[in-house]
Amino acid sequence: MCLNAVFGSFVWVNSSVLLVYTIPLSRGDSPKKSLVPFGPKIQSNEQQNVIQNRYTEGLLKDEFDEYLFEHYTTTQLVLATLDGTVKEFGPPAIYTAVEPSPDQKYILITSIDRPYSFTVSYTKFPQKVQVWTADGKFVRQLCELPLVENIPIAYNSVREGMRLISWRADRPSTLYWVETQDGGAAKVEVSPRDIIYTQPAEPVEGEEPEILHKLDLRF
């Protein structure tokens, strides 16, 4: 078992169990760049979206970079106990964050998927946020966020949809998250600008998220 520490290394689920980022056993050798070009890189803006003009280092440049990115970031999560027992947790994926609940019964997991982008960093790639039990059973998917390449460039602009998803420290296993009300555009005048929602890890059927707070400023 080898650690894959690109996006993390391990977290303590409780005092005797670790959730570890490992290199999948099925991972082969690093991709080799073909001598045959992939072809021209074409970018269009037919929808007239906002074009990002921030300078960001380390972006993917071509399809070969995409293969390298997947090769080195794909992780197999593993539950490892102090007595040496090891158990795979979920399928291999590009996991960027894992967070146990305060009561140690659930784990909040964030992963990213294709399509990737050559114009924004991995934090803007499509994301899935899911809740699993601490012993490796899938509970539910909170959201599936799309690729975002058109976040307004104004300071404090954000992506639409659920963001900053985490566990409430004052509850055993209750989530909170933020949703913008201005379309993510900081220049838009609106009240409230952000709403903080909260909901149990396993809500009863039909239980809607509860509004925790409304904010006129960006959270």
* Count of individual helical segments: 1
Enumerate the strands of the largest sheet in spatial order, edge to edge or round the barrel: 1-2-3-4-5-6-7
User: Approximately what portion of the residues adopt beta-strand conformation?
Assistant: 35-45%
- Helices and strands, in N-to-C order? EEHEEEEEEEEE
Secondary structure class reads: mainly beta
Rg, alpha carbons:
20 Å
Task: Briefly characterize the structure.
By secondary structure, the chain is mainly beta. It is built from one helix and eleven strands.
Which key terms come to mind for this protein?
single chain, about 220 residues, mainly beta, 2 domains, 11 strands, hydrolase activity, hydrolase, signal, Dipeptidylpeptidase IV N-terminal domain-containing protein
Structural summary, described in words:
There is one protein chain. Helices cover 5% and strands 36% of the residues. The protein is mainly β and 219 residues long. The strands form two sheets. It has a seven-stranded antiparallel beta sheet, covered by helices on one side. The chain is flat, with a radius of gyration of 20 Å. It starts with 9 loop residues before the first strand and ends with a strand. This is Dipeptidylpeptidase IV N-terminal domain-containing protein. Keywords: Hydrolase, Signal. One of its GO terms (molecular function) is hydrolase activity.
How is the secondary structure organized here?
Layout: E1 10-12, E2 17-22, H1 63-73, E3 75-81, E4 86-100, E5 106-112, E6 127-133, E7 138-145, E8 162-167, E9 174-180, E10 194-200, E11 210-215
Antiparallel strand pairs: 1-2, 2-3, 3-4, 4-5, 5-6, 6-7, 8-9, 9-10, 10-11
